[in-house]
Amino acid sequence: xxxxxxxxxxxxxxxxxxxxxxxxxxxxxxxxxxxxxxxxxxxxxxxxxxxxxxxxxxxxxxxxxxxxxxxxxxxxxxxxxxxxxxxxxxxxxxxxxxxxxxxxxxxxxxxxxxxxxxxxxxxxxxxxxxxxxxxxxxxxxxxxxxxxxxxxxxxxxxxxxxxxxxxxxxxxxxxxxxxxxxxxxxxxxxxxxxxxxxxxxxxxxxxxxxxxxxxxxxxxxxxxxxxxxxxxxxxxxxxxxxxxxxxxxxxxxxxxxxxxxxxxxxx
Length: 267
Known about the structure:
Elements: H1 2-7, H2 13-28, H3 35-48, H4 51-55, H5 61-64, H6 69-74, H7 77-90, H8 102-128, E1 136-137, E2 140-144, E3 152-153, H9 155-179, H10 185-210, E4 213-216, E5 221-223, E6 232-235, H11 242-265
Antiparallel strand pairs: 1-2, 1-3, 4-5, 4-6
Helix pairs in contact: 3-8, 7-8, 8-9, 8-10, 8-11, 9-10, 10-11
C-alpha cells in the first residue's frame, strides 16, 4: 500500500511511513482493521479520478492529491486508538450488542463512524467537484460559488457522502461475516450512511466558515491562500487547515456516532 502510494504520488515519503504504522496497528487488532485499507484505496482512486478536470477549477488540487503524515493521521489516528483500546480491554472483535457489551460496541461503532465520515467526505469532495451544477455555499445556500470552494456543495457531492458511508457499512458486514460473528446488515448500512452523510456536511460547514477560499479571475481557479492581490475572497476565515478540518469533523462524528447514534440504531 505504502510503496504503491509513493509511486502513484498519493503519499509523501513521511505520509507513507505514517500509513505503514497505521495499517500495521489496525490490522493487528483484528479483521475490521482492513477498513483503513478500503478507505485508502477508494479515497486515492477518487482523488486521482479525472485529476486534469479538477485542476482546471481548483488551484490546490495537485498539492492536495499527495497526502502527508498530517492528512494520514487526521483520517486514521482516532480509529487506531479505538481499535487498540478495544483489543487491550475487550480482546477479540465482537458483535455489536449494546445490551451485552455497551462499551465494546460503542468502540466498534466509533471505528465504523470514523471511516464512514472519512470516505464519505473524500468521495463527496473529490467526485462532487465533477458535478455539472454550480455549487452553493453550505453556510449561505442562496450564494452560488465557484467549483472547488471550501464549503461549496452540490446534490451529487452530498449523495457521494452517503454512498461513502454505505460502502463502509457494507465492508463492515462482509468483514464480520468472515470473522463469523453476528451481524445486523440493515442497521449497519443505515448507520454508515448517516455517519458518512452528516460527516461530509459537517466538514463542508467547517470548510465554509473556518477555511479561506479565494478566486483568481485571471486563472479562473480557487485557492486556499491569497497568492496575489487580485484574488477575491469568497468565504471563510483562515483558522484551520484542511487536515485540521478533517480531524475536527472526524472527532465529532466518531464521538456522537459511537456514543449516541449507534445505541439508537443497533437495538
